[in-house]
Amino acid sequence: SQTIHQWPATLVQPVGSPLSLECTVEGTSNPNLYWYRQAAGRGLQLLFYSVGIGQISSEVPQNLSASRPQDRQFILSSKKLLLSDSGFYLCAWNRQRNTEAFFGQGTRLTVV
Amino acid sequence: QKEVEQDPGPLSVPEGAIVSLNCTYSNSAFQYFMWYRQYSRKGPELLMYTYSSGNKEDGRFTAQVDKSSKYISLFIRDSQPSDSATYLCALLNSGGSNYKLTFGKGTLLTVNP
């Protein structure tokens, strides 16, 4: 069976510090991978998606970047965090473009 | 007009009630429709997935899609306190290179014992 791992579960970081959130998928190959941010009252906002190694599409301009160094690894990064980067970050995957997506358990990031 | 509209609630019902959750959408290119359930501080989990107009039933849950009206619903029968969560509709475009799901804002449901 397929599983998705996302860590850490919670993170408190000072303004201006770097960020690295990691997501890995097991039990499948060549998944589509996604990073979402969920803010209170605003639903799920797609940040990045990737259809293959090294292929990253950005949905919104922001202080974040994403990388896919391996087939089943997706990393969300920032060089300098802003207060507005606080939120609940979710990684997700699906096999093909027309099938349901499965989510990790999320990382709650608080920038102080 | 936003692509997907969903009433955020909150919605509070007594145990055993029938719950109706709804989303409307504006883009007729959406062809795949999903409902996710999200417990507090957890990632969303897929509840229902449907492609065509009509009803799809799974236990106490029924997903309904009306493509002509661009309206989707999730019905929960005999609601239980364990159903208390945020419910998100999600829609997927079938064509081109658009792989992303578009989510509603979610409806917070509380089922009171």
Give a structural overview.
Chain A is an all-beta fold. In chain A, 0% of the residues lie in helices and 59% in strands. In chain A, a hairpin with a 2-residue loop joins strand 7 and strand 8. Chain A is globular and about 40 Å long. The model of chain A has no long low-confidence stretch (mean pLDDT 90). Chain B has 113 residues and is mostly beta strands. In chain B, strands 2, 4, 5, 9, 10 and 11 form a 6-stranded mixed sheet that branches. A 5-stranded antiparallel sheet of chain B has the order 1-3-8-7-6, with no helix packed on it. The model of chain B has no long low-confidence stretch (mean pLDDT 90). At the A-B interface, strand 5, strand 9 and strand 10 of A face strand 4, strand 5 and strand 9 of B.
Q: Nearest-angstrom radius of gyration of chain B?
A: 14 Å
Give the N-to-C terminal Cα separation of chain A.
38 Å
| Separation, N- and C-terminal Cα atoms of chain B | 38 Å
Helix content of chain B: under 10%
Q: Which shape of chain A, going by the Cα principal axes?
A: globular
Please identify the oligomeric state: heterodimer
Strand content of the residues of chain A, in percent? Answer: over 45%
Dominant shape of chain B: globular
| Number of strand elements of chain B | 11
Tally of contiguous helical segments of chain A: 0
Biggest interface between protein chains, with counts per chain?
A-B, 26 and 26 residues
Name the structural class of chain B. Answer: mainly beta
As residue ranges, the low-confidence spans of chain B are: none
Strand content of chain B: over 45%
**Helical run tally of chain B:** 0
Mean pLDDT of chain B: 90
Overall average pLDDT of chain A: 90
What's the order of the H and E elements of chain A? Answer: EEEEEEEEEEE
List unreliable stretches of 5+ residues of chain A: none
Query: How are helices and strands ordered from N to C of chain B?
Result: EEEEEEEEEEE
